[in-house]
Structure formats: structure tokens, C-alpha cells
């Protein structure tokens, strides 16, 4: 069974390598394109005012990478500013770019999900009245964490560090898509985003059906989106390598 990893290109290589290291036939089919913003002025301004914030929360590794791409030369992460992370991938990106681990707030290692709700379970112990918070994300997204922080008294602003766009598939990826549709029993989709499923629906040829397609989804909301598209076989797994590998091994013949 071939495992199709659908994360954005910057994350697929790591996941494909890790899955292959576990003896699985994994291939990359990025279903969300990531582009830089047209005007980096707001990113540069955010770096200049970084020390004025109590928390800068990043929604994904892409948010980290595109934000830090505009770091002024020699600038260090301020010692009094917390960095919010929804999961291990984002945390690794932050540490790799010099953010001290002691300043990173992330969900508990045994959290049922790596998402905004699990991050808030760790953030809620802090006092937020009057605190400035910056949420670094793409062009749009869920507002749940921002709304929750505002309800706790924080002054929250959003910053778009990148733009999501339609994926640009090469010839090999288009052939992979065709093969997965033609032979669903020998392919297993790994979804980590509801948007990836929506992009898949747009990329598929007219008349494509998903009733025999198989998927693993790393969050209940993502699983629901897959089922809405027509996937009859959707298994939920925590978004950790060990959990995903275990789930795949339980599914494949």
C-alpha cells in the first residue's frame, strides 16, 4: 500500500523520509501551495515590535519559516516573549531558528490532539489581561485561539506571514493522483488539513469518486471533511509519527 503524504511541500519531505524509515512506501503529493506574501513590510514591522508582545503564537512550521525569513540580521528572540506552538513540528522549527525551548508553550506531549484547544490548555495558566499577542499564520484561518485570548483580556492581532494557494503539481505528481483515483485499494491518503481535502476535490477529474478510497486524518475535523467528500474509510490518528505509523500498520493488508 502506497502512503500519500499531502502536507505542504516544506513538510512532506520529512514525513516521507520518516515513514520510509519505518518500512512504508510513502510518497509526497503536496495539496496546499505556500507562497511568500507580496509585501513584507508588516513582517519587518512585527520584528521591530517583537519585544512589546507577551506571546507570539505560530499556527504551523510554515508560519515560523516565513516569519523568520524576515528576521533582521543579528536579531535574537526577546527573552520575555513566549512563543506559542500547536505541535511538535512547529516547536522543532522554532528551536531550529534559535527560540529557547524554555520560552515555547505547546500542548502536552500526551494531548489527544495538537491544535489550538490543546495549546490553550497550557496558555490558560498565564494572566492575559492587557497583554499584547500576535498570531502568525497564513492569509486566513481559524480564529478560535485569538477569540479565546481576547475573552481572557489580551489584545490580539493577526499577521499573515505567507499565502496559501493551489498546489503546482509536476507530471509525476499528476500521475500519482491519477493512479490513486484509479486504484484506491492500493493507496492510503494521509491528511493533516481539511484544506488539503478541499484542494484534492478541486484537482480531481470530473466524475472522480471516493467511496473505495482510504484515508488517515490527524484530527476529527479533518476526518469529517474527508467523509463529506465521500471517503468511506477514514481512520483518525494523533499527528505524531508513532501514532500514524501504528495506524497505517493496522490498516494495510
What does this structure look like?
The chain has 2 domains: 2-32 and 169-251, Rossmann fold (3-Layer(aba) Sandwich), CATH 3.40.50; 35-164, 3-Layer(aba) Sandwich (Rossmann fold), CATH 3.40.50. Helices cover 38% and strands 20% of the residues. It has 10 helices and 12 strands. The strands form 3 sheets. The protein has a 5-stranded parallel β-sheet with strand order 2-1-10-11-12, sandwiched between helices. Helix 3 (61-68) links the parallel strand 4 and strand 5. Helix 8 (194-203) runs parallel beside helix 9.
CATH architecture of the largest domain: 3-Layer(aba) Sandwich
Please work out how many helical segments DSSP would assign.
10
Shape: globular
Strand order in the largest sheet: 2-1-10-11-12
What is the percent of helical residues?
A: 25-40%
Low-confidence stretches: none
Give the termini distance in whole angstroms: 8 Å
SSE blueprint:
Blueprint: E1 2-5, H1 9-21, E2 25-28, E3 33-36, H2 41-48, E4 55-58, H3 61-68, E5 82-84, H4 88-96, E6 104-105, H5 116-123, E7 132-137, H6 144-151, E8 155-160, E9 162-165, H7 171-182, E10 187-191, H8 194-203, E11 214-217, H9 220-229, E12 233-236, H10 241-251
Parallel strand pairs: 1-2, 1-10, 4-5, 4-7, 5-6, 7-8, 10-11, 11-12
Antiparallel strand pairs: 3-9
Helix pairs in contact: 3-4, 8-9
List keywords for this structure.
253 residues; alpha/beta; Rossmann fold; 2 domains; five-stranded parallel β-sheet; 10 helices; 20% strand
